[in-house]
Write a structure and sequence with these properties.
Layout lengths: L4 H8 L28 H11 L4 H13 L13 H5 L1 H5 L6 H14 L30 H9 L59 H8 L9 H16 L10 H14 L4 H8 L3 H9 L6 H10 L4 H5 L8 H6 L21 H13 L8 H7 L6 H6 L1 H32 L8 H8 L3 H7 L1 H39 L6 H5 L11 H13 L3
Length: 528
């Protein structure tokens, strides 16, 4: 039988398939990539440590430190201290754009063989967003999100959005983010040696909401609908975070200068100062950004985008929306140098300039959030609101009333949010209304004026707590009396209230009639 050697040779000479080497640490997938709720880098470190059944401090000391080679270490034997490895300022910036974030991403991508961990930080925007004003100094969270994830058996983590300084509310629940533990009242960093997402690293208390208590009472309150600026901020920041993986390359520093020049050309043809005044910015700021000497921080970028009715993603992609009639009317009027030093007053209701002002005032009556008369006057190039009143007293009164009602509603929402958070929190002992007023600087009368139902609920809860404490004190006093009275009698000491007070842990309970009655009964039963 003949054998085909060529076929056999082909089989024997076949190259083995390439098998990549395994990663040093688990190839753990970040949560929420490509969404506004993408996980932060500090949260990823805590989850990665938990996946390996070690503390984050141990993971950083044993795996990250040899790769990064930090020189912040003050005590190399203290492997659990993250601050000793990074320095306190660097720990606060691990989700940002500084060198600490770059080094941690680099080390983790080597150890996990992932290539997408930079999107858990603000590194993609390092060239267009300065460090100043970017991140919060301490960890913040939404207790409602934590509780929802726990109830739905989802992974507990901390989104990057919560770490950004301008983000003050939750985009899902429209509630202000918490920064102090409801159990111990302390603030803490985004990453600690024993960090666990959803738990306080100081006291290990759960940071979510107890829905079994809060949900039935929550029907008494309506949802918050008048936080449009804060909602717009978190939505815009969320879109920026979600779009980071889609950008072909990080935007360069010149992006800010280029887009501002385009806006100045379209809105106030070449007049940089007028454009800055319209945005409510100082001449120093707008000129420095326009010339590229400096770039605005995140707060200023959001303010510019809000005024231009655009979002950060379009702004950084050099997309300019078409100028609408509303925007055209609200643009500052061009003024000659001769009249620039004098207030612009309008005296004739039939003048073209006055008609333009009235048109802008009519549009402002439908604007959300409503502008004040002063803000509208600055937009139109006036120094005082008197020029608006000269054009139309009725529209000025309507705008003033609408702005006042809006401010009242904001005040109401702010106060109600404070009271509801205090009512539904796990703080123990539950705070009294007076204590809440003292730590917030808001008077009791103001609380009752805006939210009488919530105030009544807080007072009832505190009253129940006082009754419970009173009952415990009586029970403990009776228990001590029953134990100590026979012992004193056996030693020849008359078990009077005065003598018992010297040996009791809580002698104040002897003021209670129930405790005195127990003492009287015991003395009657004692042998004479």
């Amino acid at each position: 039988m003949m054998t085909n050697m060529a076929v056999n040779d082909e089989l024997w000479l076949k190259e083995p398939e390439f098998t990549p080497s395994p990663s040093r640490l688990f190839h753990l997938e970040p949560i929420g990539l490509g969404t506004c709720y993408v996980e932060s880098l500090t949260s990823y470190v805590a989850r990665l440590a938990a996946a390996h059944s070690v503390l984050p401090g141990t993971l950083l000391a044993r795996e990250i430190k040899p790769i990064v080679g930090h020189n912040h270490t003050t005590n190399p034997l203290n492997s659990k201290s993250i601050v000793s490895l990074y320095g306190q300022a660097s720990v606060k910036a691990l989700n940002g754009t500084q060198i600490g974030a770059k080094q941690l991403v680099f080390a983790l991508e080597i150890l996990t063989k992932r290539t997408d961990l930079q999107f858990l930080t603000m590194l993609p925007w390092a060239k267009v967003i300065p460090v100043l004003g970017l991140l919060k100094h301490s960890h913040t969270w939404c207790p409602y999100c934590y509780q929802d994830w726990l109830n739905n058996q989802q992974v507990i983590y901390s989104p990057l959005l919560w770490a950004l300084k301008p983000a003050k509310i939750c985009p899902i629940h429209h509630r202000f983010l918490e920064s102090k533990c409801p159990h111990c009242g302390l603030e803490f960093l985004h990453l600690w040696h024993n960090s666990r997402p959803g738990f306080c690293p100081k006291c290990d208390g759960w940071l979510g909401i107890n829905y079994e208590v809060s949900l039935p009472d929550k029907r008494l309150f309506e949802e918050i609908h008048n936080l449009q600026p804060e909602i717009w901020i978190v939505k815009t920041l969320g879109d920026l975070i979600a779009q980071a993986p889609e950008f072909p390359c990080p935007p360069p520093r010149e992006t800010i200068k280029t887009i501002l020049r385009a806006y100045v050309y379209q809105y106030t043809p070449g007049n940089v100062s007028a454009f800055g005044r319209w945005l409510g910015l100082s001449r120093y700021e707008i000129l420095h950004w326009y010339s590229g000497v400096a770039i605005p921080n995140l707060d200023k970028l959001l303010k510019i985008c809000y005024a231009l009715s655009t979002n950060l993603v379009d702004f950084l992609q050099l997309k300019i929306p078409p100028l609408t009639l509303k925007g055209l009317v609200s643009l500052p009027a061009s003024k000659s140098k001769k009249l620039s030093s004098q207030p612009a007053l309008v005296t004739s209701n039939s003048s073209p300039k006055c008609e333009r002002v009235i048109q802008a005032m009519q549009l402002a009556t439908e604007e959300e959030p409503p502008p004040s008369l002063t803000q509208l006057a600055v937009r139109l190039g006036f120094k005082t609101p008197s020029s608006l009143t000269a054009c139309s007293k009725s529209l000025s009164a309507s705008l003033a009333t609408r702005y006042s009602e809006y401010q009242q509603q904001l005040r109401f929402s702010h106060i109600r949010n404070i009271l509801e958070l205090a009512l539904f929190s796990n703080e123990y002992p539950p705070p009294s209304l007076r204590k809440i007023a003292k730590r917030t600087g808001i008077g009791l009368a103001t609380f009752y004026h805006y939210c009488p139902i919530v105030c009544h609920a807080i007072s009832l809860r505190y009253k129940d707590y006082r009754k419970f404490v009173h009952k415990l004190a009586i029970e403990q006093g009776c228990r001590e009396v029953r134990q100590l009275a026979p012992l004193l009698h056996a030693q020849g000491i008359t078990p009077t209230a005065k003598n018992l007070r010297k040996f009791m842990h809580h002698p104040s309970s002897l003021w209670q009639a129930e405790v005195i009655e127990v003492l009287r009964q015991i003395r009657l039963d004692l042998p004479q």
